[in-house]
Amino acid sequence: MAGSIEEYGSRRKSPELIIRCMISLISGIITQISLLLIPHLFPLFSLLFQFILSGAVLAIAIISCQFIKRLLRVHASAPAFVFFHIIFIWVVYLSVIRQVVSLLLNIVFNAELAVLLIGFLRILSSDPGFIRHDSPGLVEGSISEDGHHLEETSSTAGGISSHNSNEMTSLSSRRMRYCRICKAYVMGFDHHCPAFGNCIGQKNYGLFLSLLVLFIVTETAYSVLSYQWINRHLILKENSSKIQYNLVMSTMIFSLLQVLWQVIFFAWHVHCVCFNIRTEEWINWRRYPEFHVILQPSPDQSLPDTRFRNPYNEGIFCNLKNFLLR
Protein backbone atom coordinates (compact mmCIF):
# COMPACT_ATOMS: atom_id res chain seq x y z
CA MET A 1 0.00 0.00 0.00
CA ALA A 2 0.99 3.59 -0.39
CA GLY A 3 2.76 5.48 2.34
CA SER A 4 -0.35 7.50 3.18
CA ILE A 5 -2.32 4.31 3.82
CA GLU A 6 0.40 2.95 6.08
CA GLU A 7 0.46 6.25 7.98
CA TYR A 8 -3.30 6.06 8.43
CA GLY A 9 -3.04 2.50 9.73
CA SER A 10 -0.29 3.38 12.20
CA ARG A 11 -2.26 6.39 13.40
CA ARG A 12 -5.25 4.14 14.13
CA LYS A 13 -3.00 1.89 16.24
CA SER A 14 -1.48 4.75 18.22
CA PRO A 15 -2.07 5.12 22.00
CA GLU A 16 -4.51 7.91 21.18
CA LEU A 17 -6.92 5.19 20.06
CA ILE A 18 -7.28 3.99 23.66
CA ILE A 19 -8.33 7.46 24.77
CA ARG A 20 -10.82 7.67 21.90
CA CYS A 21 -12.28 4.31 22.87
CA MET A 22 -12.69 5.45 26.47
CA ILE A 23 -14.47 8.60 25.31
CA SER A 24 -16.76 6.47 23.15
CA LEU A 25 -17.46 4.20 26.12
CA ILE A 26 -18.48 7.20 28.22
CA SER A 27 -20.65 8.53 25.37
CA GLY A 28 -22.31 5.13 25.01
CA ILE A 29 -23.07 4.92 28.72
CA ILE A 30 -24.55 8.43 28.71
CA THR A 31 -26.71 7.51 25.70
CA GLN A 32 -28.07 4.33 27.28
CA ILE A 33 -28.73 6.03 30.62
CA SER A 34 -30.64 8.79 28.80
CA LEU A 35 -32.82 6.19 27.07
CA LEU A 36 -33.24 4.26 30.32
CA LEU A 37 -34.88 7.30 31.91
CA ILE A 38 -37.76 7.30 29.40
CA PRO A 39 -39.58 4.14 30.60
CA HIS A 40 -38.61 5.02 34.17
CA LEU A 41 -40.16 8.50 34.08
CA PHE A 42 -43.07 7.71 31.73
CA PRO A 43 -44.07 4.10 32.47
CA LEU A 44 -47.78 4.66 31.78
CA PHE A 45 -47.36 6.29 28.39
CA SER A 46 -47.87 4.38 25.15
CA LEU A 47 -45.04 2.67 23.31
CA LEU A 48 -45.42 5.12 20.42
CA PHE A 49 -44.98 8.10 22.74
CA GLN A 50 -41.92 6.53 24.35
CA PHE A 51 -40.53 5.73 20.90
CA ILE A 52 -40.87 9.33 19.70
CA LEU A 53 -39.54 10.75 22.96
CA SER A 54 -36.61 8.31 22.92
CA GLY A 55 -35.75 9.41 19.40
CA ALA A 56 -35.64 13.02 20.54
CA VAL A 57 -33.62 12.16 23.66
CA LEU A 58 -31.20 10.06 21.60
CA ALA A 59 -30.64 12.94 19.19
CA ILE A 60 -30.12 15.39 22.07
CA ALA A 61 -27.71 13.00 23.82
CA ILE A 62 -25.61 12.49 20.68
CA ILE A 63 -25.54 16.22 19.86
CA SER A 64 -24.62 17.06 23.47
CA CYS A 65 -21.78 14.52 23.46
CA GLN A 66 -20.51 15.94 20.17
CA PHE A 67 -20.66 19.49 21.56
CA ILE A 68 -18.78 18.52 24.73
CA LYS A 69 -16.10 16.69 22.72
CA ARG A 70 -15.59 19.71 20.48
CA LEU A 71 -15.53 22.01 23.49
CA LEU A 72 -12.86 19.87 25.18
CA ARG A 73 -11.12 19.27 21.84
CA VAL A 74 -11.16 15.52 22.22
CA HIS A 75 -12.07 12.87 19.67
CA ALA A 76 -13.99 9.63 19.99
CA SER A 77 -13.96 6.37 18.07
CA ALA A 78 -17.23 5.73 16.22
CA PRO A 79 -16.46 1.99 15.77
CA ALA A 80 -15.88 1.70 19.53
CA PHE A 81 -19.25 3.38 20.08
CA VAL A 82 -20.95 0.80 17.83
CA PHE A 83 -19.02 -2.05 19.47
CA PHE A 84 -20.17 -0.90 22.92
CA HIS A 85 -23.84 -0.97 21.89
CA ILE A 86 -23.52 -4.45 20.37
CA ILE A 87 -22.01 -5.79 23.59
CA PHE A 88 -24.53 -3.88 25.72
CA ILE A 89 -27.48 -5.37 23.80
CA TRP A 90 -25.94 -8.83 24.12
CA VAL A 91 -25.45 -8.46 27.88
CA VAL A 92 -29.07 -7.34 28.40
CA TYR A 93 -30.26 -10.29 26.33
CA LEU A 94 -28.17 -12.85 28.21
CA SER A 95 -28.97 -11.48 31.65
CA VAL A 96 -32.71 -10.83 31.22
CA ILE A 97 -34.46 -11.70 27.97
CA ARG A 98 -33.15 -15.20 27.26
CA GLN A 99 -35.13 -16.51 30.24
CA VAL A 100 -38.34 -16.45 28.15
CA VAL A 101 -36.76 -17.53 24.84
CA SER A 102 -36.85 -21.12 23.59
CA LEU A 103 -33.60 -23.06 23.25
CA LEU A 104 -33.67 -22.99 19.43
CA LEU A 105 -34.34 -19.25 19.21
CA ASN A 106 -31.70 -18.65 21.86
CA ILE A 107 -29.09 -20.50 19.79
CA VAL A 108 -30.11 -18.70 16.59
CA PHE A 109 -30.05 -15.24 18.15
CA ASN A 110 -26.69 -15.75 19.84
CA ALA A 111 -25.31 -17.01 16.53
CA GLU A 112 -26.63 -13.86 14.82
CA LEU A 113 -24.89 -11.65 17.36
CA ALA A 114 -21.65 -13.62 17.04
CA VAL A 115 -21.67 -13.38 13.23
CA LEU A 116 -22.55 -9.68 13.48
CA LEU A 117 -19.60 -9.06 15.78
CA ILE A 118 -17.21 -11.02 13.55
CA GLY A 119 -18.42 -9.18 10.45
CA PHE A 120 -18.10 -5.84 12.22
CA LEU A 121 -14.50 -6.56 13.26
CA ARG A 122 -13.70 -7.81 9.77
CA ILE A 123 -14.90 -4.70 7.96
CA LEU A 124 -12.77 -2.51 10.24
CA SER A 125 -9.62 -3.95 8.63
CA SER A 126 -11.02 -4.76 5.19
CA ASP A 127 -9.48 -3.33 2.03
CA PRO A 128 -12.09 -1.19 0.25
CA GLY A 129 -9.90 -1.04 -2.86
CA PHE A 130 -7.00 1.21 -1.90
CA ILE A 131 -4.90 2.27 -4.89
CA ARG A 132 -1.15 2.66 -4.76
CA HIS A 133 0.16 6.09 -5.66
CA ASP A 134 2.31 4.55 -8.39
CA SER A 135 -0.67 2.82 -10.03
CA PRO A 136 -0.73 3.59 -13.80
CA GLY A 137 -4.50 4.09 -13.75
CA LEU A 138 -4.42 6.59 -10.93
CA VAL A 139 -3.94 9.71 -13.01
CA GLU A 140 -6.77 9.61 -15.49
CA GLY A 141 -10.02 11.09 -14.26
CA SER A 142 -9.23 10.74 -10.56
CA ILE A 143 -9.92 13.42 -7.99
CA SER A 144 -6.93 14.95 -6.23
CA GLU A 145 -6.73 15.99 -2.59
CA ASP A 146 -7.87 19.52 -3.43
CA GLY A 147 -10.99 18.11 -5.08
CA HIS A 148 -10.04 18.81 -8.71
CA HIS A 149 -9.61 16.46 -11.63
CA LEU A 150 -6.10 15.41 -12.48
CA GLU A 151 -7.28 15.24 -16.08
CA GLU A 152 -10.44 16.86 -17.40
CA THR A 153 -12.64 15.57 -20.19
CA SER A 154 -16.02 16.77 -21.38
CA SER A 155 -19.19 15.35 -22.87
CA THR A 156 -20.60 16.98 -25.96
CA ALA A 157 -24.18 17.77 -26.81
CA GLY A 158 -26.35 16.05 -29.34
CA GLY A 159 -26.60 12.64 -27.67
CA ILE A 160 -24.33 10.02 -26.14
CA SER A 161 -21.89 8.26 -28.42
CA SER A 162 -21.29 4.52 -28.25
CA HIS A 163 -18.31 3.48 -26.12
CA ASN A 164 -15.61 1.16 -27.32
CA SER A 165 -13.56 -1.05 -25.02
CA ASN A 166 -10.87 1.59 -24.46
CA GLU A 167 -13.49 4.13 -23.40
CA MET A 168 -15.08 1.64 -21.00
CA THR A 169 -11.65 1.01 -19.47
CA SER A 170 -11.24 4.76 -19.13
CA LEU A 171 -14.62 5.01 -17.38
CA SER A 172 -13.64 2.25 -14.96
CA SER A 173 -10.42 4.03 -14.07
CA ARG A 174 -12.42 7.19 -13.36
CA ARG A 175 -14.15 5.55 -10.40
CA MET A 176 -11.05 6.02 -8.27
CA ARG A 177 -11.84 8.72 -5.72
CA TYR A 178 -9.79 10.34 -3.00
CA CYS A 179 -10.80 9.92 0.65
CA ARG A 180 -9.62 12.83 2.77
CA ILE A 181 -10.01 10.83 5.99
CA CYS A 182 -7.97 7.80 4.91
CA LYS A 183 -5.73 10.02 2.74
CA ALA A 184 -5.84 7.44 -0.02
CA TYR A 185 -7.39 6.76 -3.40
CA VAL A 186 -10.13 4.12 -3.39
CA MET A 187 -11.48 2.19 -6.37
CA GLY A 188 -15.28 2.38 -6.54
CA PHE A 189 -15.39 4.75 -3.55
CA ASP A 190 -18.93 5.07 -2.15
CA HIS A 191 -18.38 6.87 1.16
CA HIS A 192 -16.26 6.83 4.28
CA CYS A 193 -18.28 5.11 7.01
CA PRO A 194 -17.44 6.52 10.48
CA ALA A 195 -19.35 3.71 12.22
CA PHE A 196 -17.13 1.10 10.56
CA GLY A 197 -14.00 3.24 10.64
CA ASN A 198 -13.23 2.50 7.01
CA CYS A 199 -13.94 3.50 3.44
CA ILE A 200 -16.65 1.63 1.57
CA GLY A 201 -15.38 0.83 -1.89
CA GLN A 202 -15.41 -1.76 -4.62
CA LYS A 203 -13.74 -4.54 -2.62
CA ASN A 204 -15.81 -4.33 0.59
CA TYR A 205 -19.15 -3.00 -0.73
CA GLY A 206 -20.69 -6.49 -0.63
CA LEU A 207 -19.48 -7.01 2.94
CA PHE A 208 -20.90 -3.61 3.88
CA LEU A 209 -24.36 -4.44 2.51
CA SER A 210 -24.30 -7.90 4.12
CA LEU A 211 -23.38 -6.37 7.45
CA LEU A 212 -26.12 -3.76 7.11
CA VAL A 213 -28.69 -6.52 6.48
CA LEU A 214 -27.37 -8.44 9.47
CA PHE A 215 -27.73 -5.37 11.70
CA ILE A 216 -31.35 -4.95 10.57
CA VAL A 217 -32.20 -8.63 11.08
CA THR A 218 -30.49 -8.86 14.48
CA GLU A 219 -32.01 -5.66 15.85
CA THR A 220 -35.45 -6.65 14.57
CA ALA A 221 -35.11 -10.06 16.22
CA TYR A 222 -33.99 -8.42 19.45
CA SER A 223 -37.02 -6.10 19.37
CA VAL A 224 -39.39 -9.05 18.87
CA LEU A 225 -37.82 -11.05 21.71
CA SER A 226 -37.86 -7.97 23.94
CA TYR A 227 -41.54 -7.41 23.22
CA GLN A 228 -42.19 -11.05 24.10
CA TRP A 229 -40.42 -10.56 27.44
CA ILE A 230 -42.37 -7.33 28.15
CA ASN A 231 -45.71 -8.99 27.40
CA ARG A 232 -44.90 -11.86 29.70
CA HIS A 233 -43.81 -9.43 32.39
CA LEU A 234 -47.05 -7.40 32.14
CA ILE A 235 -49.52 -10.26 31.66
CA LEU A 236 -48.14 -12.85 34.05
CA LYS A 237 -46.89 -10.29 36.57
CA GLU A 238 -43.65 -12.21 36.86
CA ASN A 239 -41.22 -11.28 39.57
CA SER A 240 -38.74 -9.01 37.80
CA SER A 241 -37.13 -5.83 38.97
CA LYS A 242 -38.03 -2.39 37.70
CA ILE A 243 -34.52 -1.93 36.34
CA GLN A 244 -34.88 -5.08 34.23
CA TYR A 245 -38.12 -3.83 32.71
CA ASN A 246 -36.62 -0.41 31.98
CA LEU A 247 -33.51 -1.98 30.43
CA VAL A 248 -35.52 -4.22 28.12
CA MET A 249 -37.89 -1.42 27.14
CA SER A 250 -35.14 1.14 26.46
CA THR A 251 -32.95 -1.26 24.48
CA MET A 252 -35.95 -2.43 22.45
CA ILE A 253 -36.80 1.16 21.52
CA PHE A 254 -33.13 1.83 20.76
CA SER A 255 -33.05 -1.17 18.40
CA LEU A 256 -36.24 -0.04 16.66
CA LEU A 257 -34.77 3.43 16.15
CA GLN A 258 -31.69 1.86 14.58
CA VAL A 259 -33.79 -0.33 12.30
CA LEU A 260 -35.79 2.70 11.14
CA TRP A 261 -32.86 4.57 9.63
CA GLN A 262 -30.96 1.44 8.60
CA VAL A 263 -33.85 0.23 6.42
CA ILE A 264 -33.92 3.61 4.64
CA PHE A 265 -30.14 3.52 4.30
CA PHE A 266 -30.23 -0.02 2.90
CA ALA A 267 -32.97 0.91 0.42
CA TRP A 268 -30.77 3.73 -0.86
CA HIS A 269 -27.85 1.37 -1.43
CA VAL A 270 -30.09 -1.14 -3.21
CA HIS A 271 -31.04 1.74 -5.51
CA CYS A 272 -27.34 2.50 -6.04
CA VAL A 273 -26.60 -1.13 -6.93
CA CYS A 274 -29.54 -1.32 -9.33
CA PHE A 275 -28.39 1.78 -11.23
CA ASN A 276 -24.63 1.30 -10.73
CA ILE A 277 -24.04 4.62 -9.02
CA ARG A 278 -22.03 5.44 -5.92
CA THR A 279 -23.23 7.72 -3.11
CA GLU A 280 -20.29 10.06 -3.55
CA GLU A 281 -20.87 10.20 -7.31
CA TRP A 282 -24.56 10.99 -6.85
CA ILE A 283 -23.82 13.85 -4.45
CA ASN A 284 -20.85 15.33 -6.33
CA TRP A 285 -21.72 14.42 -9.94
CA ARG A 286 -21.02 17.96 -11.11
CA ARG A 287 -17.34 17.38 -10.29
CA TYR A 288 -17.05 14.48 -12.72
CA PRO A 289 -17.26 15.24 -16.47
CA GLU A 290 -18.30 11.68 -17.35
CA PHE A 291 -21.68 12.43 -15.70
CA HIS A 292 -22.20 15.56 -17.80
CA VAL A 293 -24.30 16.05 -20.87
CA ILE A 294 -23.84 19.56 -22.23
CA LEU A 295 -26.93 20.87 -24.01
CA GLN A 296 -26.41 23.74 -26.39
CA PRO A 297 -28.27 26.88 -25.30
CA SER A 298 -31.57 27.64 -26.93
CA PRO A 299 -32.20 31.09 -28.44
CA ASP A 300 -33.60 32.37 -25.14
CA GLN A 301 -30.62 31.06 -23.12
CA SER A 302 -27.16 32.58 -22.86
CA LEU A 303 -25.31 29.62 -21.31
CA PRO A 304 -25.32 25.89 -22.08
CA ASP A 305 -27.20 23.59 -19.71
CA THR A 306 -25.49 20.69 -17.92
CA ARG A 307 -27.61 17.61 -17.36
CA PHE A 308 -26.91 14.41 -15.43
CA ARG A 309 -26.44 11.06 -17.11
CA ASN A 310 -24.95 7.87 -15.71
CA PRO A 311 -22.40 6.31 -18.09
CA TYR A 312 -22.01 3.26 -15.83
CA ASN A 313 -25.67 2.23 -15.93
CA GLU A 314 -26.09 -0.90 -18.09
CA GLY A 315 -29.65 -1.67 -16.99
CA ILE A 316 -30.91 -3.08 -13.71
CA PHE A 317 -30.45 -6.74 -14.68
CA CYS A 318 -26.86 -6.29 -15.89
CA ASN A 319 -25.99 -4.06 -12.94
CA LEU A 320 -27.25 -6.64 -10.45
CA LYS A 321 -25.50 -9.46 -12.29
CA ASN A 322 -22.20 -7.58 -12.36
CA PHE A 323 -22.52 -6.74 -8.66
CA LEU A 324 -23.29 -10.33 -7.60
CA LEU A 325 -20.68 -11.99 -9.84
CA ARG A 326 -17.74 -9.65 -9.37
Automatic annotation (TrEMBL):
It is a multi-pass membrane protein. GO terms for cellular component: endoplasmic reticulum; Golgi apparatus. The keyword Acyltransferase applies. The chain crosses the membrane at residues 21-42, 48-68, 80-97, 103-124, 205-225, 245-268. Residues 173-285 form the Palmitoyltransferase DHHC domain. One of its GO terms (molecular function) is protein-cysteine S-palmitoyltransferase activity. Residues 153-168 have a biased composition (Polar residues). The keyword Coiled coil does not apply. It comes from the Eukaryota. This is S-acyltransferase. Belongs to the DHHC palmitoyltransferase family. Residues 149-168 are annotated as: Disordered. One of its GO terms (biological process) is protein targeting to membrane. Its main location: membrane. Coiled coil: none annotated. The DHHC domain is required for palmitoyltransferase activity. It catalyses: L-cysteinyl-[protein] + hexadecanoyl-CoA = S-hexadecanoyl-L-cysteinyl-[protein] + CoA. It is an enzyme of class 2 (transferase). It is found in: Endomembrane system. Its EC number is 2.3.1.225. It holds the Pfam family DHHC. Keywords: Acyltransferase, Membrane, Transferase, Transmembrane, Transmembrane helix.
